[in-house]
Design goal:
Elements: E1 14-15, E2 32-35, H1 44-52, E3 57-60, H2 64-70, E4 80-83, H3 102-116, H4 118-130, E5 135-138, H5 145-157, H6 161-169, H7 175-185, H8 201-215, H9 218-223, H10 230-240
Parallel strand pairs: 2-5, 3-4, 3-5
Antiparallel strand pairs: 1-2
Helix pairs in contact: 3-8, 4-10, 5-6, 6-8
Length: about 240
C-alpha cells in the first residue's frame, strides 16, 4: 500500500493505515488520511484522484480567518465538510525567536491546543468515529494541528509511540516545500525562525509526555478533558482497525 499520495496541488497527503497496534491488529489502509491545505485541490487530475479515494468527509482544522484568506477544499457532491478550529491562540511561526528551544516551544503550543481546543478535538474524533466512508483531516501545512490529531487517533487505536512519532516526522520530507511556499507567499518578509517547517519526532514525543504528565495517559486525557465517550472510542477502533 502507498502511504504518500501525490497530488499536483495539495502536499503532505498521507494514509494513516498499516501501523501495528498493541493487541496485534493494525490500522486499516484507505480509511483515514491527513494532509496540508486542500484549497489547491483544483486540477481535473487532482479531483479525479481525490474522488478515487472515496473520501466522504473533510475536517478542516484551521481558523475561519485562514479559510477566508487561503480558501478551502472545493465543494464536492457527497463530501461533508467540517471546520473545527482546534487552536485558540494564534502565533506566527516565522517570527519565533531563533534562540528558543524549538522542539520544546512547539510542544508547549501543542499543550495549549490540547487544553484550549478540547471541545473541538472531541468533535473531530466523534466525526471520524461516526463516518461511514474515508475521512481526511488537515490544517495549513499538515504538520502541527494535523500532527496532534494524528497522534491522538493513533494512540487511542493502540499504536506504539515509536510509530506515532515516526508518522509525525514524515512531514520532514516536505519541509523544503513548506519553506519555499512561505517565501513565495510572503515576498519581502524575512523568515526569522530557522526551524520553520520542521517536524522532528522530539516534538510529538514531548507533547505526548506532557499529556501523560498532566492527565495520566493519552486515553485519560481523551476521556477526561476531551470528554470523548467510550462508545466513540469503540467506534474508532471498530472502523479503523483490522479484525
Amino acid at each position: 500500500m502507498t502511504r504518500h499520495i501525490a497530488f499536483e496541488g495539495p502536499i503532505n497527503f498521507r494514509d494513516l493505515g498499516g501501523y501495528p497496534t498493541a493487541d496485534g491488529r493494525s490500522v486499516r489502509w484507505g480509511r483515514l488520511y491527513r494532509s496540508a491545505s486542500l484549497a489547491t485541490l483544483t486540477s481535473p487530475a487532482d479531483l479525479d484522484r481525490f474522488r478515487a479515494l472515496d473520501i466522504g468527509t473533510v475536517i478542516d482544522l484551521r481558523y475561519p480567518w485562514e479559510i477566508d484568506r487561503r480558501g478551502r477544499v472545493p465543494e464536492l457532491d457527497g463530501v461533508a465538510y467540517h471546520n473545527l478550529s482546534i487552536e485558540h491562540r494564534p502565533y506566527d511561526q516565522a517570527e519565533i525567536d531563533p534562540d528558543v528551544d524549538p522542539w520544546r516551544y512547539l510542544a508547549d503550543r501543542f499543550a495549549e491546543v490540547a487544553e484550549d481546543g478540547a471541545a473541538e478535538i472531541r468533535e473531530v474524533l466523534e466525526v471520524i468515529a461516526a463516518a461511514d466512508r474515508p475521512v481526511v483531516f488537515h490544517c495549513a501545512s499538515g504538520k502541527d494541528r494535523t500532527g496532534l490529531i494524528g497522534a491522538l487517533v493513533l494512540t487511542l487505536l493502540g499504536v506504539g509511540e515509536d510509530d506515532v512519532a515516526a508518522d509525525f516526522a514524515l512531514t520532514e520530507l516536505v519541509t523544503a516545500r513548506l519553506v519555499a511556499d512561505w517565501r513565495a507567499g510572503n515576498p519581502g518578509r524575512a523568515l526569522r525562525w530557522p526551524a520553520f517547517g520542521r517536524a522532528p519526532e522530539a516534538v510529538i514525543r514531548h507533547a505526548l509526555a506532557d499529556l501523560t504528565a498532566a492527565h495520566g495517559s493519552v486515553h485519560a486525557y481523551a476521556t477526561g478533558k476531551v470528554r470523548l465517550g467510550g462508545a466513540s472510542i469503540d467506534a474508532l477502533r471498530a472502523r479503523l482497525l483490522t479484525d
